[in-house]
Amino acid sequence: MPNGQLITIPVSGSLKIGLLKSAIRKAGLDDEEFMILLKE
């Protein structure tokens, strides 16, 4: 991650959009940066 922080997301069924967006922000990314990394 850009800021070196580790983020843990519990696995219990579907991932809700709010939790995903929160994790992306905590990682120091915006939606576009996340999508670029996801495609790599």
Q: How many helices in DSSP terms?
A: 2
Low-confidence stretches: none
Helical content (DSSP H or I, runs of 4+): 40-55%
Mean pLDDT over the residues: 84
User: How large a portion of the residues is in β-strands, by DSSP E?
Assistant: under 5%
Overall geometry comes to globular
Rg computed from alpha carbons, rounded to a whole number of angstroms: 10 Å
SSE-based structural type: mainly alpha
Largest sheet: none
Oligomer: single chain
Secondary structure tally: strands: 0
Please give the alpha-carbon distance between the first and last residues. Answer: 14 Å
N-to-C SSE string, H for helix and E for strand: HH
InterPro entries: HicA_sf
Protein name: Ycfa family protein
What this model shows, in words?
With 40 residues, the chain is mostly helical. The protein has a domain at 15-40. The chain is built from 2 helices and no strands.
Helix and strand arrangement:
Blueprint: H1 17-26, H2 31-39
Structural features:
mainly alpha; 2 helices; 48% helix; 40 residues
In short:
The protein is mainly alpha-helical. It is built from two helices and no strands. The longest helix has 10 residues, at 17-26.
